[in-house]
Known about the structure:
This protein is α/β, with parallel strands linked by helices. It folds into 2 domains: 50 residues; 264 residues, Metallo-dependent phosphatases (Purple Acid Phosphatase, chain A, domain 2, 4-Layer Sandwich). Helix content is 26%, strand content 19%. The strands form 2 sheets. A 7-stranded mixed β-sheet has the order 1-14-13-12-2-3-4. Helix 5 links the parallel strand 3 and strand 4. Helix 5 packs across helix 6 and helix 7 packs parallel to helix 8. It is globular, with a radius of gyration of 37 Å. The termini are far apart.
Amino acid sequence: MPFARSRYPDPVTDPTPERGSPIRSVALGIVVFGATLILLFGALNVVRRSDSGTPAASSTQAVASRTPTRAPASPEPNGSTSGSAAPSADPSASASVSASPAVEATLVGAGDIADCGLKDDSATAALVAAIPGAVFTAGDNAYQSGTAKEFHDCYDPTWGAFRDRTRPAPGNHDWVTKDLAGYLGYFGTAAAPNGTSWYSYELGAWHVIVLDSDCSNVGGCDAGSPQGRWLAADLKASSAQCTLAIWHHPRFSSGFHGNDAEVGPFWKALYDGGADLIINGHDHDYERFAPQDSNGHADGARGIREFVVGTGGAELRPFFLTRANSELRYSASFGVIRLDLHRGSYNWQFVPTKGTFSDSGTASCH
């Protein structure tokens, strides 16, 4: 055997023993027999040592190679985003991934919703039906004129299923009916809990502000207007870490209507008050902006992120001029935005009625 030959040299024997001497022959046989036993035991010992060494080391290496090693993700202070659905988690890495913060509340909705001549509000209503939590609207709830009949015939058969959990905002089409009568008559005190078309409420750990951007109908939107004074006082009184505001006309937009400077005072008050998130409608598309200040300058530290979600059911429109800090634009499908609100952070997800497009991400509050 090779192991025996390397460890134990062959015994030295006389190659020419004297013939005819029985004692010498017997002695020689005993020597040969003993040497053979020594060789056999030595070989077995070598095999045992080999079996208890190298294979065990190989087994350990194989287990290690099946356990993936992951580098820690780089922190993203302004929020991480994805243009498609997030990949499923790797079960083997579950022990090293920190638990997500608890969802304290969910808010889902869109603007520009119900038109009796179209059917896409039925598709967006089906999305909302599958998502628990509070529902918001971002204005232009019932086309074309926000009449009581249009709310009854167009809005109620679809999004009306969620009226008991909806906190609405008015839009310019709702204001076509004098004194906002159709809108206020349909939603009741949920639309004007304090007797005005602007109000605020608490949702989980978040403070949510609903404003009316039809400035000419409400005495203006500037800081000295009734709404402007109320907004300043409301922000000052709130102790919430996270603040979200919803109204109809976007200050910044790459869509058909574009930027609306008249709501600039809203932005300034909210920026000065440390707000985190703004949701608008009016342009019939979906657009996400990076955090910015009230003048449209990128601001990763204190800036407000704006979403335009005018995809509730009214006819979609293309984009015209890409505005600064616009991160993503999409107008090929209706859909709703889902916000999962945590204590100190939030997740967002745009859910389309068709196609594979998805936009999702997470960000911390200021």
